[in-house]
Amino acid sequence: DFLKSYYENRKGKEKEVEGSAQGDPSDTSQAATDEPTDPKLYGVKETELYDVLGVKPDADANQIKKAYYKKAQTLHPDKNPDDPEANAKFQKIGEAYQILSDPNLRASYNREGKDGVDDTPKMESAALYAMIFGSDKFDKYVGELQMATMMQQADDEEDVPAALMAFKQTKREVQCAVDLEERLRVFVDGDTQAFEEQSKAEAEDLASAPFGATLLYIIGYIYEEQAVTRLKAKDG
Q: Rounded to an integer, what distance in angstroms lies between the CA atom of residue 155 and that of residue 214?
């Protein structure tokens, strides 16, 4: 009942947001949010990086992370294969987040603008995203990481209920088990050669993702250890 009530409440809010977004075309309040922020209002040198993420200079760390996640979900190159500028856009929001998520770099940017952070080493955005939120390619093995779940469920006005997070975690674990059973079916049915060929091809694909080889090793180690533990328990 709690979860049903929560989801019905969220659906109602989503419809309200959609309605306001599709409202009177003459209403310029939405467009106004895309205009550059006046640095003088916040006592900073410039606001370009804040504008890239769609936040104000007084945003807290959590708001900046949420904004980055939402932008990254929309602009990720994998979701925009027909956009030749997709990689550049994704890199831009990644660099903005790297600066604004670091308190010292953010202070330098607020004080000196881009001149204060130009020499800062920048991580490749795909690697940054995978490090924080995981990689979509690994979802069937580890599920949606909790950080990504929280970013999707939470907004600035409400916290994610603990009961909902527990439900999402259980759902994640069950889905991983279902996906694993599906992958092992070929092996269980006796076609070991096909299983080995499929596994090798998928491993090569997973390893090609940012931090892919490392994630693949960790996941393989955990799955193997859990399998040994559970088989021992089963055999008594």
A: 32
